Amino acid sequence: MDKFLERFDKTIIFVVIYTLVFVVFFKTISYTLPFVLALIFAIAFQKPTNFLIKKFKLKNSMAAFITTTIFSAIIILIFVFAIASVTNEIVTLTKNAQTYVTDISPKINKLMTNLQSFYKNLDPSISSTIEQNFSSYATKTLSTTVNISGKVMSYILTFFSYIPYVAMVIIFTFVSTYFFTKDLSTAKVKFADSLPTHQTDKILNAFTHIKKMLGKYVLSELIIIGITFVETIIAYAVLNVNYVLLLAIITAICDFLPIVGIAIIYIPLAVIYFISGNYFTAVGLLVAYAVISIIRQIIEPKIVSSTMGIHPVAALAALFIGLEAGGISGIFFCMFLVLFYKIFKNLDIL
């Protein structure tokens, strides 16, 4: 009984401390973002840096400079290519949005005419109400589309106005990455020397486990989003959907959204193509949505549980409870709670 109470007390303390750290971290992330990213990159660059040091007998500073420069150049090239492609598609879509609405309006009217044949025997007041609702909906849709087009252009201009800030963040991130990468090995030794002798191994093991588990969690999420992204690109390309890259990126991002997920993109697209008369693409989008959703529901618990060493039921519970409690932030809170609890449990801290 005493052991149970002791373990219960430790668990409560752990949850309280974890909650405080989680809240403080995400509340201050806007100020610490370059340094958080730099630390993540430095940890990721540690292995190639150590390889250069051992293979070519380089100094830490030179090896860190080489790895940071190469990987930073690759990341920047990918980022610039993606931004250029997506911006081009956004501008094209914005220019053509009103044209699409104008072209689709006659088809909506034709659809309404066809629908009238189904309810022509209804009471005239009901028929009139339905027609007015359809007309009102079409007007609102056109107005909303025009407003969205204007807002998209406004957001693009706003984004470009933030380029100096983004550039500053990028510069700070990569400069900090170099220094973190160069000093990480030395910092580990200094940190280990500063610890109490009888606690050194235990604390270092905790940090090692945390690093590995966090890396596995990030990897698992990237795998899931990557699979959705690739499946979506293939589906859009096969079905000849316009603005493939832009819509695929938006769909992958929407995969994070609770409840609606990728449906917020697939279903409206299917409706648009159906109204346009392209029934094959409309049906294909619905089929692709169903297939991708099923695949995601199957692979997500398996990937998360296998990469993190967490039981699939625990992963499902964390996803469901987090989703219901706080949406995306709730998912992160519960997943990291389970993750850190397992780490400390394995280390006999809890």
Q: Report the C-alpha radius of gyration, rounded.
A: 26 Å
The global form is: globular
Helix segment tally = 10
Mean pLDDT over all positions: 77
Secondary structure: number of strands: 0
Strand content: under 5%
Structural class: mainly alpha
Provide the succession of SSEs: HHHHHHHHHH
Helix content: over 70%
Could you give a short account of the major beta sheet? none
Distance between the termini: 16 Å
Poorly predicted spans: none
The domain tally reads: 2
Short recap of the structure:
This protein folds into 2 domains: 1-194, no CATH class; 198-350, no CATH class.
Write the layout of secondary structure elements.
Blueprint: H1 2-27, H2 29-56, H3 60-119, H4 124-161, H5 163-194, H6 200-238, H7 244-254, H8 263-275, H9 279-308, H10 312-346
Helix pairs in contact: 2-3, 2-5, 3-4, 3-5, 6-7, 6-9, 6-10, 7-8, 8-9, 9-10
Describe the structure.
- By secondary structure, the chain is mainly alpha-helical.
- 89% of the residues lie in helices and 0% in strands.
- The chain is globular and about 85 Å long.
- The chain has 2 domains: 1-194, no CATH class; 198-350, no CATH class.
- The model has no long low-confidence stretch (mean pLDDT 77).
- The protein is built from 10 helices and no strands.
- The chain has helices at 2-27, 29-56, 60-119, 124-161, 163-194, 200-238, 244-254, 263-275, 279-308, 312-346.
- One of its GO terms (cellular component) is membrane.
- Keywords: Membrane, Transmembrane, Transmembrane helix.
